[in-house]
Write the structure tokens for this entry.
Amino acid sequence: MHQRNNNFIDFELVRREASIEQVLELVGYKPLTVSGPQWRGPCPIHKSSSPRSRSFSVNLERNAFQCFGCSAKGNQLDLAAALFGLSVYEAAIELCRQLGLEPPTK
Ligand SMILES: [Zn+2]
């Protein structure tokens, strides 16, 4: 049995409990510019070659990110998956583990 409980993680609940800001905090991300809820800076996914790059854009209110360099975009679980190098499902569990949360199941 490889697929233990795979379809029972409540992604919506994970997204409610873990913000995109917490995901970025876990990997020690520091934005170059902050304008209200909008962060800009080097992309932690494709690892912008310049530390002054502003290709990566995050909206903390919408828990959404977008990179104009590598075209990655999505919500905090998509970001966690990209940063941890895991599937969204595995990233949701890993995120809960790192934040000390019980992975919510349906
Ligand atoms: Zn990128």
Summary: The mean pLDDT is 93. Strands lie at 33-35, 38-41, 56-59, 64-67, 73-75.
